């Protein structure tokens, strides 16, 4: 039996794309007959309400809480907070190491391997634990650990340590792959695995339904990193030019500056009562697909991604799309009908507004009606659960084999 120890910052699939990917990949690997998956979650208080998972699930936060209690009593000053942070990191390493060590002790003759989701936090702890326990480590590069942390003075040293010491690196798009090869010289141990989507997103694709207004939809929520403020500004500009638009934004609100987004939502709700709508969540992925099929243009002015579940779901539905020229979308652009997608540079209000206006005009002038008949067949081979599982299984087996071949002979 191969024991796959997966380490994650968080888990709940409703929290975001990375959490959804972790749940899907953990579940998928658990279906392989000689794999046993163990998932360790750093930042979740309780996992009591998560049932019927085919893998073991442990909250490192809960295990850390009681032991760390003396440190929490320190006065809230800058110096004490920095001290607590250092102690918390050391304790996380110890707890993660202890939990994996227990499984190693229970199954000493079985092969074990670690997989860390996110190179600049979880990957750091995972790399230390893998070296300490002498088991191989695969680190996966997601979204903001590449788009933000790679350019951060305080996290670049951590990333350098992880990438140079990891046994294998999985990226989620080719932009990440090429950049990390150039910066860290890791050509021999890196590849890309694209996220999968639920099969129903690959069923009968979008067809234009003529209405009095052109409906824009976005499931980016209210986040700075997703460019929600750029979308809202573009929407205002195009409304002022007389385009008959509605905008629906789905998703949660950023907690760090919740008051900013709350005020902005109220302002738009008051100023555009019949044109602007938002919801904190969608009941299910099936409901999201229905909303996409019944809308006219999908919008995502994101500042950067890994392999955005939201964008590839919209891509698979076939709805016309306006998004930014970054991350996974560049990998698939050559496969798409150029009439259905407009790209702008990340972080540009004027550029995004112009791209959105181009798609609107295409719809108004009947240049966009429906996707080609073979559209779904092209994408099924890329985004299926089975394709994703096969690639992950191959990397895990080959990394283990290489690691074991390099062990000293008795």
Brief sketch in words of this structure:
The protein is of the alpha/beta class.
Describe the protein.
This protein has 410 residues and is an alpha/beta fold. It has 2 domains: 2-196 and 384-405, Glycogen Phosphorylase B (Rossmann fold); 199-364, Rossmann fold (3-Layer(aba) Sandwich), CATH 3.40.50.2000. Helices cover 46% and strands 15% of the residues. The protein contains 16 helices and 13 strands. The chain has helices at 17-30, 60-67, 69-72, 78-106, 122-133, 144-147, 156-165, 174-184, 228-240, 258-271, 285-293, 309-317, 329-332, 349-364, 375-383, 385-405, and strands at 2-8, 35-41, 56-59, 112-117, 137-140, 168-171, 190-192, 214-218, 245-250, 276-279, 297-300, 321-324, 341-344. It has a 7-stranded parallel β-sheet with strand order 3-2-1-4-5-6-7, with helices on both faces. Helix 8 (174-184) links the parallel strand 6 and strand 7 (190-192). Helix 2 packs across helix 4 (78-106) and helix 4 (78-106) packs across helix 5. The longest helix is centred in the first third of the chain and has 29 residues, at 78-106. The protein starts with a strand and ends in a 5-residue tail after the last helix. The model has no long low-confidence stretch (mean pLDDT 91).
Number of helices: 16
- Give the neighbour order of strands across the main sheet: 3-2-1-4-5-6-7
The gyration radius over C-alpha positions equals 23 Å
What sort of overall outline do the alpha carbons produce when their principal axes are compared?
globular
What is the CATH superfamily classification of the largest domain? Answer: Glycogen Phosphorylase B
Could you tell me the number of beta strands? 13
* Whole-number mean pLDDT: 91
The poorly predicted ranges are: none
**What characterizes the major β-sheet?**
7 strands, parallel
In total, the number of domains comes to 2
CATH topology (level 3) name of the largest domain: Rossmann fold
Architecture per CATH nomenclature, i.e. the level-2 architecture of the largest domain: 3-Layer(aba) Sandwich
Q: Please give the alpha-carbon distance between the first and last residues.
A: 22 Å
